[in-house]
Specification:
By secondary structure, the chain is α/β, with parallel strands linked by helices. Helices cover 28% and strands 30% of the residues. It has 15 helices and 36 strands. The strands form 7 sheets. Strands 12-13-2-3-28-29-34-33 form an 8-stranded mixed sheet. Strands 15-16-17-18-19-20-21-24 form an 8-stranded parallel barrel, surrounded by 4 helices. It has a 5-stranded antiparallel sheet with strand order 1-4-5-11-10. A hairpin with a 2-residue loop joins strand 31 and strand 32 (527-532). The termini are far apart.
Length: 578
């Protein structure tokens, strides 16, 4: 052997010994380093986690280090039901048939190239587990909503095994009441199935063809009518001939000043009344945005709304007044509300688009159509039945020049499959069957929402509306009892369910007032209790904004006032007299 080869052999052997030494000795040294290196961990990254659709407020903040997220072991156990066992310097975390075993702070048989992922951290005496380790147990962890908000989502293996449209539905609070009066033509059980086809040239704008293709007679169709135009009697008769009743989207597009108690308004109302069938009148909708000619004038809007309501009440008692907003912005919605006595139904228009405002950087494929409904539903369904005045889903967009058929199938399936069960106060839904690439005004030719052009999308719609819960004709003689529901605006903390104080006030009919410190006083049937308030910021349904849920401990309140309740299949059911 040459001298040079001998030297290389010795050096190589030395390196091997050093590496072997690291394997045997280094973990203890790294363990010591981890204990002393907590200043490198950023704690307080987020105070919230979403797990399988439910919000959880953590007992301890989430940490972040080297692009990994760390969750405390007590919190991990609370929200995922993992089990732990400790013996000497060994810690085992298990879930179902998978387990992690830590020896002196490191997972056994872990690659040395991933030291930061293999070890856990200790902060203030608590063990913090990195997300990569939790994912070894089968969970999926990520920033909620494309990393643009500070909420972490944890999805269980069972949840991941479901189809996308069936994932993360979360829990629902149901409130069952007796002796609830119904609004005009309100179905107590079921949803009127509706659509808009007047711009679908693919089916020659035919309601009968739409009914045939979808395999279901639709109970209602709608038409846009500009204020100043006569009532569309001929079209309304076509709707009736197709087995439905009309919704008229009546829009004062020259501004609110033209709305007066004059001959035009009276004749419009008389023509509507002469039809002698239910008519859903969606007057001046989407006023909460900035894109209508009647936005930004809430006082005048309410004044004109009341005027139209009073004329309709006198001349056309068959007319249902639909006060209809757009999903967002939320902050301006309530200032336009005319009052319960002037509104029959509250509506909202919902669109699942792949990108917002034709901006490639504003990707919005994560948005859940059910969550887009939640704000209006939770705010108003305790006092008015709800209408989804328009619902559309992108299947092609010019923003990226791509077809998104799977996206459309997923969102349509999620909306129509779960709406009757989870949102019993929704009484109408209308699909917006339009290819806006052809039919929209210039500047808005962005998305194709039509469902008749592609078989997979049409089949998804047809499969989910075929149930008896979607109604094809007017229901009469509504039942006296009604089921209300409440979703999304609650969270779990320390094993307790906290619902927003507005739920306690509006849905349980309890008096809620700010009390001393961080507590609220709840009064019901002459009895009052003080309860601690816990707040949690959660993601809004769109645009990466936050909202604060001011939660009250629901179990404590129900027990204190002896309100009948039970947990069924993970949902809370409450029985309460109206």
């Amino acid at each position: 052997m040459s001298k040079r080869k001998l030297v290389l052999s010795v050096v190589t052997a030395f390196i091997i010994v050093c590496l072997f030494g690291i394997v045997i000795i280094e973990p203890a040294e790294i363990w010591s380093r981890i204990k002393q290196n907590n200043e490198g961990m950023k704690v307080g990254y987020s105070d919230s986690v979403v797990y399988d659709g439910n919000h959880y407020k953590l007992l301890h903040p989430i940490g972040e280090k080297n692009e990994s997220r760390y969750i405390s072991l007590p919190d991990l156990k609370a929200i995922t039901s993992v089990e732990t066992a400790e013996k000497d310097e060994e810690l085992t975390i298990s879930y179902k048939n998978k387990k992690l075993t830590y020896d002196n702070g490191f997972i056994q048989n872990c690659s040395l190239t991933k030291d930061d992922m293999c070890g856990y951290e200790i902060i203030d005496g608590l063990i913090y587990i990195p997300d990569q380790s939790v994912e070894r147990l089968g969970f999926q962890i990520g920033f909620f909503y494309d990393k643009q908000t500070n909420t972490v989502s944890i999805k269980s293996p069972e949840e991941q095994a479901k189809k996308p449209q069936d994932q993360e539905l979360g829990s629902t609070i149901y409130v069952h009441k007796e002796n609830v009066p119904a609004e005009k033509y309100e179905p107590r059980s079921g949803i009127y199935l509706g659509g808009y086809v007047l711009q679908d040239e693919y089916i020659d704008t035919s309601m009968n063809t739409f009914n045939k293709l979808t395999g279901k007679t639709h109970a209602s169709y709608f038409k846009y009518v500009g204020y100043g135009k006569p009532f569309p009697k001929e079209w309304a008769e076509e709707v009736i001939a197709a087995g439905g009743f009309p919704q008229v989207a009546w829009e004062p597009n020259n501004g609110l000043n033209e709305v007066k108690d004059d001959e035009y308004l009276r004749q419009f109302a008389k023509d509507a009344g002469e039809l002698n069938v239910p008519i859903l009148l969606r007057y001046a909708s989407e006023m909460n945005g900035t894109w209508t000619f009647y936005s930004g004038h809430s006082e005048q809007y309410i004044e004109k709304w009341k005027l139209v309501h009073d004329v309709m009440e006198k001349e056309a008692p068959n007319v249902m007044m639909l006060w209809n907003v757009f999903t967002m912005p939320e902050s301006t919605i309530d200032e336009f509300y005319p009052g319960d006595e002037y509104v029959d139904y509250v509506g909202v228009n919902i669109y699942n688009v792949f990108y917002h405002n034709d901006k490639i950087e504003a990707k919005s494929d994560f948005e859940d159509p059910l969550r887009l409904l939640d704000y209006v539903y939770n705010t108003y369904s305790h006092k008015k039945p709800i209408v989804i005045g328009e619902f559309g889903v992108t299947n092609y967009t010019v923003t990226d020049g791509q077809h998104h058929d799977d996206f459309a199938v997923e969102k349509i399936t999620r909306m129509y499959k779960y709406l009757p069960e989870l949102y019993p106060r929704v009484k109408f839904i209308y699909y917006f069957d339009v290819n806006n690439l052809v039919n929209a005004p210039e500047g808005r030719k962005i998305n194709n929402y039509a469902i008749t052009e592609k078989k997979s999308i049409l089949n998804a719609y047809a499969a989910n509306v075929k149930t008896d819960q979607y109604l094809s004709k007017v229901e009469g003689d509504p039942a006296k009892s009604e089921t209300y529901s409440y979703r999304d605006f609650f969270f779990y903390y320390g094993g307790e369910l906290y619902a927003d104080y507005k739920f306690v006030r509006d849905y349980l009919n309890m008096d809620v007032k700010e009390s001393r410190g961080n507590s609220m006083k709840v009064t019901f049937n002459g009895k009052g209790i003080d309860v601690k308030q816990e707040s949690l910021k959660i993601d809004k349904a769109a645009f990466f904004e936050k909202r604060e849920v001011k939660g009250l401990p629901l179990g404590e309140i129900l027990d204190a006032f002896e309100v009948e309740n039970e947990i069924k299949d993970g949902d809370l059911h409450i029985q309460i007299a109206k």
